[in-house]
Automatic annotation (TrEMBL), chain A:
It comes from Granulicella aggregans. Pfam families: PTPS (PF01242). It comes from the Bacteria. This is 6-carboxy-5,6,7,8-tetrahydropterin synthase. Belongs to the PTPS family. QueD subfamily. One of its GO terms (molecular function) is 6-carboxytetrahydropterin synthase activity. It catalyses: 7,8-dihydroneopterin 3'-triphosphate + H2O = 6-carboxy-5,6,7,8-tetrahydropterin + triphosphate + acetaldehyde + 2 H(+). InterPro entries: 6-PTP_synth/QueD, 6-PTP_synth/QueD_sf. Its cofactor is Zn(2+).
Automatic annotation (TrEMBL), chain B:
Its EC number is 4.1.2.50. This is 6-carboxy-5,6,7,8-tetrahydropterin synthase. Keywords: Lyase, Metal-binding, Zinc. GO terms for molecular function: 6-carboxytetrahydropterin synthase activity; 6-pyruvoyltetrahydropterin synthase activity; metal ion binding. Pfam families: PTPS.
């Protein structure tokens, strides 16, 4: 099996806030990320898929097709949007880097022809990233 | 489908979170068990008597269930505070060879990675999956604890 990774970028606004908590508790846990006016990042997404090399085309997946899937499923939904207000999955989940990686996995899983999704890596900035491999806890 | 991309899930997703820290330090590769000639032969320019320095990058990977309330593997504020106290304040702008942890061991980046792993194993809020230490942009080292290969553990 060969793994292939494609990058994409999107720029979005967000803030961290739990409605069940007081403002003080939100600020204690989330610090400056709790500022309700929001802030933003240039996110880098790395999607790794695995599959067998097609003997005729030499491809695991058609890169143009993978790029189009990333554009349609993720970038067109997230780019230049406010994640809390404009992306449906973050109405019920805080748009942390971890949750963004999980949400992108769920958006892409099963949608890539001839290849299996292996890893979703989301960089919020060059020094901070989250990886999700589709793993769930046992219970 | 996207409207329910995260909910409802019965099982908790397990994610890993990686954070990079930077510090600058000097060192000299030299073993007391070798004579001068052998040190020179084994360590080359890294054995130059007055030492040299690097901008090190330490990448810490923590793995665990994403907390349903906070959406986090662990709170970055806690991790940064831990790194500041236990990594940066100990190593930044020091000569590694003068530190206790390198009193008996050569200050190679392999040994530094092992020391960093020991430090972050005691981080109380999430499980350490592995550490990655870059000495220069061309040299980097990975350690995930005794008996585990970095790749398996990071996954």
């Amino acid at each position: 099996m060969i793994f292939l990774t494609r990058k994409a970028e999107f720029s979005s606004a967000h803030f961290y806030w739990n409605d069940a908590w007081s403002q003080q508790e939100n600020e204690r846990v989330f610090g400056k990320c709790a500022n309700r006016n929001g802030h933003g990042h240039n996110y880098t997404l790395e999607v790794t898929v695995g599959g067998e090399v097609d003997p005729v085309s030499g491809f695991v997946v058609d890169l143009k097709e993978l790029k189009d899937i990333l554009e349609r499923e993720v970038v067109s939904v997230y780019d230049h949007r406010h994640l809390n207000f404009e992306v449906p999955e973050f109405k019920s989940a805080i748009p942390t880097t971890e949750n963004i990686a999980i949400a992108i996995w769920n958006r892409l899983d099963g949608k890539i022809p001839n290849a299996k999704l292996q890893r979703v890596r989301v960089y919020e900035m060059p020094d901070l990233f989250a990886d999700y491999y589709g793993e769930l806890s046992a219970d | 489908m996207p409207t329910d991309a995260l909910t409802p899930v019965k099982k908790t997703p397990i994610a890993s979170l990686s954070r990079r820290y930077h510090f600058s330090a000097s060192h000299r590769l030299h073993s007391e068990q070798y004579d001068e000639g052998r040190n020179r032969e084994v360590f080359g320019k890294c054995n130059n008597p007055h030492g040299h320095g690097h901008n090190y990058v330490v990448q810490i990977t923590l793995k665990g269930p994403v907390d349903a309330v906070t959406g986090m593997v662990c709170n970055l504020g806690d991790l940064d505070a831990f790194a500041r106290t236990n990594l940066l304040e100990r190593f930044d702008h020091t000569n590694l060879n003068t530190l206790d942890c390198f009193a008996e061991r050569v200050s190679t980046t392999e040994n530094l990675a092992i020391e960093v792993h020991t430090i972050f194993e005691s981080f109380p809020f999430a499980r350490l999956a592995g550490v990655h230490v870059e000495e220069t942009s061309n040299n980097s080292f990975d350690y995930a604890g005794e008996g585990s290969t970095p790749l398996e553990s990071m996954r």
